[in-house]
Structure formats: structure tokens, C-alpha cells
Amino acid sequence: MKLPFYGFEFGLTLRLLSAVVLLYICVRGARYCLYVRSRKRRGCEEPPKYPHRDPFLGLDYWFEQRQAAQESRWLPTSKALFARHGKTYEINNLGQRMIHTMDAQNIQSVWATDFKNWGLQPLREGIAEPFFGHGLNTTDGELWKHSRALVRPTFKRTEIANLEFLGRHVDHLLQQLPDDGAMVDLQPLFSRLILDASTEFLFGESMDSLLPDSPQDCLDFIRAFDYCLYGLGRRVRLGQLRFLHRDRKWLESIRIVHNRVDQYIDKAVELAQDPRSVEKTSDRYVLINQMAKQSQDKKALRSEILAVFMPGRDSTGHALSNVFHVLARRPDIYQTLRQEVLGCGDAELSFELLKSMKYLQGILYEGHRTLPTTAQSYRMALNDTQLPVGGGKDGNSPIYIRKGDTVMASMWGLHQDQEIWGEDAAEFRPERWEGLKAIWTFVPFLGGPRTCPAQQMVLTQEAYVLARFARAFERIESADPNPWTEARRIGFQSKYGVKVEYAFGSKIGN
Ligand code: HEM
């Protein structure tokens, strides 16, 4: 005889549920009307929309992207989507509006002219917090300004020009190569090179992972760090669904990395508290020591240092690997590079000399343009605002943006745009850079106030390594039939490594 009771409860639940659904529809409806009114008032038009099969969460798009990434075809898929829907189009990203754009005007607007209306904190803090905490790459506004001011002096011209320390690590790399020119994979070696150089640059102490007796805890650290990045990549892709990411190994890897970094921080704080430290640290700028002078909050220091170490550890190594992947398959380009470098005799490879090597610089730019380490970036609107173009039938009208909408800027799309780069946009052609100035059409480091602070350092280090190789090797040839295929972590690198054979010209040169 309890049925009526159950019946009463069921009826009430049903009515409550209907009320909630009705309220939801009303709120959505009112929001939409407001959106249309504001859009018209601003003279904005709608961008083309991705034709979702799932109109509520856009899960169809999400699964297609996941599959493309798993099958190493995320980059061509992204290019094909722009070709189909236009340079700017809208998707439903798990219930939220997201605009994809490869249009230089829109990218410049979000990253520079309309900078104050866009941020990354709401996008990153939940995803990256367990690893980074609150630092340079997870905050906006005043917190970000403070962090940026802390790292700025690290990338001063005088620091960048100091290539002597990089030279030592390149020596270590060259010593790892078999004397008979037998096949070797350069990709992990470049990764270690940059790890060794960046740990010296940031912590004042290199991990020396390229030395034969590199300690085991250093290798554990590299493995753990790489797993942290892998986990971060998964969380980025999961977006709102990141609560599904439950991985003990990831948490353990974070612990290993934090422990190691904390050891450097402890030393730096001790040094900062030592009144004689000025003499000890004056010979060169070490980021962690400088930061410890300004703050001794160890958790905050860890966040800041990881924010610089993460891109510092990985991206330049990827960029070098990508360029060498091409050079090993293009003897014509390698020989022209070698002529330019050998043409400078055995002069010291200084910042100025490297900058003056125009063909070499063209190779670096083509590397960043055609084989991206960073292909795209995201921002969320912090206020209602607009994008300058992409709306309406002809794509020339502005697009109205509501607070909370997200933009994905595709630097890869922009760098492959035939309207900008010509019909041979996909080709690796260093000569195209002769006399070319590409402002906001070539943005591997993006631009505006949050542009990559390490841009000059990256290009200088890459140039130095290229010149050292050109001096040392008469030829470098691919020992791998695979074309460049993307392997995606936070950035992109070659899935099959960079396996080469080579012939020493002379092993000397600096
Ligand atoms: C191939 C090498 C690199 C590329 C292509 C690259 C690219 C970028 C890009 C596109 C951004 C802007 C991201 C955004 O606005 O969403 C950025 C930011 C940043 N990069 Fe790099 N980067 C590279 C290497 C490095 C290195 C070696 C370091 C440090 C040693 C570094 C440190 C940073 C930092 C700290 C930021 C955040 C700046 C801020 O939010 O104010 N990057 N990088």
C-alpha cells in the first residue's frame, strides 16, 4: 500500500524536473535574444558554423579531433577544416562557444590590440594547477604582470648573446656521436642538449644528461617530466571533462619533478639569505637566484620556475629536430647552409655573426613555419568584445564575442595560408625570406604583451647549433624512409625521430 506514496514522490520529481528544464530553456532563450540584440547593435555578423551532429555538446567534433590526434593527423585535419569552413568559424566545444581562426587580423586583435579583454587564467588554472600552481603561464592581470617582470631580465640581449655555455653542451652532444657516422637518432640528443643548457641557464647548474655518467636521478627526472607534459596534454584535450583524468602515475611524476626543482629552490633561497651571495652570483644571471632575492615563498618560486622551464626544456629541442628532419632529406639546402657557414671561416659564432647569416635564418623561419612546435593557442573573453573579421557571408564583418567565449588561434593555419605565402606555402624554401618582413603573418612566438619572452634566445640557440653542425659535418643524410609525421605532446615533433647518417668534415669548430 506504499504505491501512492511512491506515486506522489515520482509526480513531484517530474514536476520539479520539468520546472528546471523550463527555466533552462527560458534562460537560454533570454541569453540568445540578448546576444542577437548586442550583436546587431555592434554591427556584427555570425561566422560560419561547424555542422555538428551533436548540437548540445558538440561531442562529434571532440571525438573526431581525438581520433585525428591518435592517428597523428591533427595538423592536416585542422588545415582541412579551415579549407572547408573558412579562415574563421565557430564550433560548439562541450557546450561552450569557441571561434577557430587563422586570420592574422583576429589573432593580432586578441593577442595585442584588444589584449585587456582576453585571458588564459580561466582556461588553464584547473588544467595545469596541480603541476604549475599559480605562475606566469596560468594567471592574468596583476599576478601575470608581476611574474613577467621577474623573468624579463633573463632574456636580455646580453644574456642571450652569451653562447659559451651552450657551446660546452654542443661539445658533449658531438662526443656522443659514433665516429664512423653510423645511424643515430638526433631527436633525443637535441632534447637532452636543451635540457642541459636550460637547467644551467635557469638553475645555474646543468643536469648534464649528455655526459656518459649522467646520474640515474637525472634520467628519472626527465622521464617524470615528460610524463607530466603528457598528462597536461591529455587534460588540455579533455577540457571541461578533465575530471575524467585520474592517473596516479601523473601525480607521482609531478611529485618527482617538484622534489627535484625544490632542491634548486632551497639552494637559491639559502644563497639569497647569505649576505656574501652577491659575489658568488654576479658572474652571470641565473633566473632562480634572481627570483629568490625578490621572494622567498618557495611554492610561488616553484610555479614561476616551472612556467619557464616547461617551454625551456622542450620546445627548442623540438624545433631543432624538425629542422634537421628536413636538412637530412634536402642535401641541396644543407650544402647551401654549409657554404654560408664555412664562408665565415673559423670566426667565433657570436650572436651578431649568426644573425648576419641570412640563409641560415631563412632555414630557421621555414622550420617554424612549416613544421610547428606550437601550432595553436587559446584565449577566453574576459568581457563582451568582438573580433574584427570572420562574420557574415563574405567573412569581412566583425564577430560579436560574449564573456566566456573562447578563441583558438591557429598559427599553423596562418603559416600555411596560400593567400599569404603563395601556392608553394607548404614547401620548405629558405630563399622566400630574402627581404621579407612578415609582421602578424608569421607568429610562431605569437605577439603582443604575452609574446614568448624567449624568442630571441630560441632563434640564437638554434642558429648556433645549426652552424656548429654545418662546420662539423660534410653531409647529413636521412636513415629513415618516413615522412615527418606529427607526434603531439604539448608541442609537435617527429613521431619517428630524426634518424641520420653523416660524414664528418672536421669535428672541430665552435
Ligand atoms: C621553439 C621554441 C618556442 C616556441 C615556438 C615558443 C612559443 C611560444 C608562444 C607561441 C607563446 C605564447 C603563448 C600564448 O600566448 O598563448 C610562448 C610563451 C612563453 N614562452 Fe615560449 N616558445 C618557445 C621556447 C621557449 C623557451 C625556450 C622558453 C624559456 C626558456 C619559453 C618561455 C615562454 C614563457 C615563459 C611564455 C609565457 C609568457 C607569458 O605568458 O607572459 N619559450 N612561447
Automatic annotation (TrEMBL):
The keyword Transport does not apply. Keywords: Heme, Iron, Metal-binding, Monooxygenase, Oxidoreductase. It holds the Pfam family p450. Heme binds at C452. InterPro entries: Cyt_P450 (IPR001128), Cyt_P450_E_CYP52_ascomycetes (IPR002974), Cyt_P450_E_CYP52_fungi (IPR047146), Cyt_P450_E_grp-II (IPR002402), Cyt_P450_sf (IPR036396). One of its GO terms (molecular function) is oxidoreductase activity, acting on paired donors, with incorporation or reduction of molecular oxygen, reduced flavin or flavoprotein as one donor, and incorporation of one atom of oxygen. SUPFAM superfamilies: Cytochrome P450. Its cofactor is heme. Belongs to the cytochrome P450 family. This is Cytochrome P450 monooxygenase. It comes from Lophiostoma macrostomum CBS 122681.
